[in-house]
Design brief:
single chain, 547 residues, alpha/beta, pyruvate-formate lyase- activating enzyme, 3 domains, 7-stranded mixed sheet, 17 helices, 33% helix, globular
Length: 547
């Protein structure tokens, strides 16, 4: 039997765990009769080339995982392939099938079946019976339409003992070609968030810390430098979190760990542990979603806004770890005004990264079922984004999407972060004014380069916030952008013997011809920088700020 796994990711920087997680469970299984082939690509790949690769292999069956951002792309490829080869069986799994699947199967007749839930314990049986639908009744999670046209639904597959699964990295299909890998130390979520497919659907199962340590040791031996922990809430169990943090600390200087935490649930012991950990060991993500308790309560998310903010402030006070927070536009009762105010407040705290997402009404979630209660209208096709609700209009959601881009381009970018944050802190309506400027002039309708992003911010400040021009120009220069345009043209050359200003960077003992010196002058502030004449990159070799 010839089997293709169609592996489509959002980008080449990401790798799905689906194939290695499933394949690892076949390690002791007699599957020599199967000839495996993986067709890999991204949502930006040429579908025709992928279709050609599939055709050249002539598979008997195609398996793939569908999720929000690859679903339509996969449909495009597989629908065309089925037209060319009607006898090929096609089975899909993944988050897209957590809900009701009958209508989907009847509308997408190229599919043989879909699978709902966690597939590791079912996969061996599926492989054994790929062309024997009469045995599929024994496979939890299988959904299909039989020969007589009847829809069969075997419910949801949930792994009975997550800790006993063979780790994905034991599969020959595990990807080792990136600097990071993903790992689950637990599965399930204690929380009941109505917008999430993990919300209260199953009990949390943990892997013993000793097993995690062994896996990390092996992963590190393969040259990996970052671990992205996929647990929904790393500190849902404080005891388990404490044990793992001790293990993570044993890899200080070797591995960096990305964790999703709930800042409202930071116990005193975990706080003391965070204080003692090596700086830079962790990259922390906190899904705040909203700072309005009415919104959180409507979504059945535990932990108050006040406790979450207090936890965030504690993490920031350590000055040890990068902190990323999420907000979700379109949640019940979450207005556009409240979203903007939340962004302003989080900016004032100097969060490292703020991400704004538009709510997606995922199949199988409680909020999708209750959408009409809140007047939520959402796209019927992936990624099922909210289009309007009783709390936010179509126009406001569009503005929220532009605000998301603005925050990502300028606030989350280390080049502009300080300039942008200072603009917001010094000018209470800066974000509104900047958004209106961008929307009026349609400035983010296409992707801009880093330098053009800087030029846009400079032109805006030059017109509306003259006092901020100095900060933007300084950031432009530190980034190594051109001195021949935009804010770079504000730099004045300093020439020994001709310039009257005292240059704090000039040292008579050094080669006077090694550097070109420049300065920016605004009110009482002067920014000095020196460019190495031999360095063609343009970034200053030395800088000094005088106030």
């Amino acid at each position: 039997m010839r089997l293709i796994w169609l592996d489509i990711n959002a980008s080449y920087s990401h790798s799905s765990l689906a194939l290695p997680a499933l394949h690892a469970q076949l390690t002791n299984h007699q599957s020599d009769s199967i000839v495996w082939h993986v067709v890999s690509g991204t949502i930006n790949s040429d579908p025709s080339l992928l279709l050609l690769e599939i055709s050249d292999f002539c598979p008997d069956i195609i398996l793939s995982t569908a999720w929000l951002f690859n679903h339509t792309f996969i449909q495009n490829i597989l629908g065309r392939y089925k037209s060319l080869n009607p006898n090929t069986a096609i089975i899909l799994g993944g988050p897209e099938f957590c809900g009701e699947n009958e209508d989907y199967l009847r509308s997408n007749k190229y599919l043989t079946a879909v699978f709902r839930g966690e597939g590791e314990e079912s996969f061996q049986l599926l492989v054994d019976t790929l062309f024997q639908p009469s045995f599929w009744n024994r496979i939890p999670g299988m959904c299909w339409i039989n020969e007589s046209g009847k829809y069969i639904d075997n419910g949801e597959a949930i792994v009975s003992d997550f800790s006993m699964l063979i780790p994905p990295e034991m599969s020959r299909f595990f990807s080792w070609d990136k600097h990071f890998v993903q790992i689950e130390t637990s599965r399930g979520c204690f929380n009941t968030c109505s917008f999430c497919v993990s919300g209260g659907c199953r009990k949390v199962q943990n892997i013993a810390p000793s097993k995690i340590k062994d896996r990390l040791t092996y992963i590190y031996s393969r040259g990996i430098t970052e671990i992205r922990v996929l647990d929904r809430t790393f500190n849902a169990s404080s005891e388990k979190a404490e044990e793992l943090l001790l293990i993570f600390n044993e890899f200080k200087g070797k591995l960096k760990f990305h964790l999703e935490i709930h800042p409202a649930l930071l116990t005193d012991k975990i706080r003391r542990m965070l204080v003692s950990l090596e700086p830079g060991l962790l990259h922390l993500e906190a899904g705040l979603q909203s700072l309005d308790n009415k919104v959180l309560n409507a979504c059945k998310r535990s932990g108050s806004s006040e406790k979450s903010v207090e936890g965030v402030k504690f993490i920031l006070s350590l000055h040890k770890f990068e902190l990323h927070v999420d907000l979700i536009a379109g949640l019940p009762y979450y207005t556009y005004f409240a979203l903007v105010e939340d962004v302003k407040y989080l900016s004032s705290l100097n969060i490292d990264e703020i991400q704004i997402e538009l709510l997606k009404l995922l199949p199988g979630t409680k909020l999708r079922e209750d959408a009409s209660i809140y007047g939520i209208v959402y796209s019927p096709t992936p990624p099922y984004e909210v289009l309007r609700s009783n709390s936010i209009s179509v126009n406001e959601l569009y503005k929220a999407s532009i605000l998301s881009k603005v925050i990502d381009i300028w606030y989350n970018n280390k080049i502009w972060h300080e300039s942008f944050r200072r603009l917001q802190n010094d000018n209470p309506i800066f974000i509104e004014t900047f958004l209106d400027y961008i929307l009026t002039n349609k400035l983010l309708n296409s992707r801009l380069s880093q330098e053009n992003n800087g030029m846009l911010l400079y032109k805006f400040c030059d017109e509306f916030y003259q006092k901020a021009v100095f900060d933007v120009a300084s950031a432009w220069i530190v980034a190594g952008f051109s001195l021949k345009k935009g804010p770079g043209k504000l730099a004045m050359p300093w020439i020994k013997g001709l310039s009257t200003e005292t240059n704090p960077l000039y040292n008579e003992m050094h080669d006077p011809n090694a550097f070109n010196y420049y300065y920016l002058h605004r009110d009482e502030k002067m920014f000095w920088f020196a460019l190495d004449k031999k360095d063609k990159k343009g970034k200053p070799a030395k800088t000094h700020l005088s106030t």
